[in-house]
Amino acid sequence: QVQLVESGGGSVQSGGSLRLSCAVSGFTYNRYCMGWFRQAPGVEREVVATIGSNGVTRIAEGVKGRFTISQENGKNTLYLQMNDLKPADTAMYYCAARSWYFGTCPTSDSYAYWGQGTQVTVSS
Q1: What backbone phi and psi angles, to 5 degrees, belong to 89?
Q2: Nearest CA to 65 among 85, 39, 40, 50?
Q3: Which of 10, 19, 51, 60 is 20–30 Å from 84 (CA)?
């Protein structure tokens, strides 16, 4: 059974930093994509960053230069380092995973496996 468990969310002031973690278990695909998505109230869920099994990363334009996605221990732990946070970054953040064999990771929410989410709140 695949499980993704996020942690590291919280409340910070504008300009602060947080590092989100996603512990992944039971995910056995060797070719895959993993990603971070976020959803604010009343807004559609949007991609923040993705990383493929080939190590290629994609960062959404709105957070480029501030957020970094990385992995540790192969695909067992996924991170999202968030610096210079802004109130507009306030949202529930989700990690996601799927098998993928075709190159650049998709940015749609077509991922098969999702965590429960961790809340990030940025105050001005």
Answers
A1: -85, -5
A2: 85
A3: 51
Torsion sign, CA atoms 75, 41, 45, 1:
positive
pLDDT surpasses 80 at 1? yes
Q: Give 66-114 pLDDT, tens digit per residue.
A: 999 999 977 799 999 999 999 999 999 999 999 999 888 999 889 999 9
C-alpha to C-alpha distance for 25 and 6, rounded to whole angstroms: 12
Q: How many whole angstroms separate alpha carbon 77 and alpha carbon 22?
A: 6
pLDDT score at 41: 92
Q: Which of 103, 76, 57, 100 is nearest to 5 (CA)?
A: 76
Distance CA 100, CA 56 (A): 13
Q: Where are the beta strands (DSSP E) in 8-117?
A: 10-13, 18-25, 32-39, 46-52, 57-59, 67-72, 77-82, 91-99, 113-114
